[in-house]
Amino acid sequence: MAEDLFALDRGGLESPGVHQKDVTPDDNTDLAVYSRAIWVSGDAGDIAVHALDGTAETLKNIPAQYLYPYRARRILSTGTAATAIQILY
Predict the structure, then answer these.
(1) What is the pTM (predicted TM-score) of this model?
(2) Which of 11, 32, 36, 89 is close enough to 15 for a disulfide, judged by CB 3.0 to 4.6 Å?
(3) Interatomic CA distance for residues 28 and 17, integer angstroms
(4) Residue 54 near residue 73, CB atoms below 8 Å
(5) What is the spatial distance between Cα 41 and Cα 53, in angstroms, rounded to a whole number?
(6) Of 73, 75, 57, nearest in space to 84 by CA
(7) CA-CA distance, 62 to 6, in Å (whole number)?
(8) 46-75 tens-digit pLDDT
(9) How far apart are CA 32 and CA 22, in angstroms?
């Protein structure tokens, strides 16, 4: 049986995510869990977000198959062109 040498460690923001969730961009609803990073597994493009403090921002030209370290509270449908978005947390 494999041993998890990090089982007792509490990860910080620099640590990798341990869960992932598919995201349907929505202009009106916060994510159920704020992101640690955003993964684009579909088409590249902009991702419109609300930062943790609620500030609206656009992450420009995020490539496909790219893990973008960003803490978002919401991923907006308006202004988001990237597809098949997932968050890691």
Answers:
(1) 0.86
(2) 11
(3) 25
(4) yes
(5) 26
(6) 75
(7) 31
(8) 999 999 999 999 999 999 999 999 999 999
(9) 11
